[in-house]
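Input/output pair, single chain:
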Amino acid sequence: MGMGETFGARLKRMRSLRGLGLRETANKVGISATYLSRIENNAETSPPSEEKILKLAEILEDKFDELMRLAGRVSEEVKDLIKADSEMPTFLRRAKEENMSGATLLKMLDEKKTKK
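Output:
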């Protein structure tokens, strides 16, 4: 549930919370129950595709970006945003140097928006 939660543990926990069976969930996502079981038990070395993770997020009513992070993936949309703006990598490095989390940056943007 907390900071050290793995991708597989998160899927298993969310699936249990939703009362969904392994086979039922796998069928809805379009993967085999064996593959989902291997993911949930941290026995699978290759995470599912972005498309499958999006389906899992929808079915499990979970946060797509968090599932992607736990799976060690970056969405194509985010990659495209970074590639489209030559200053974005510098911005991200600077934010890291300043120990600014995504949550802090979002809060700053929200505060800026409310001041307008």
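The chain has a mean pLDDT of 93. The chain has two domains: 7-74, 85-115.
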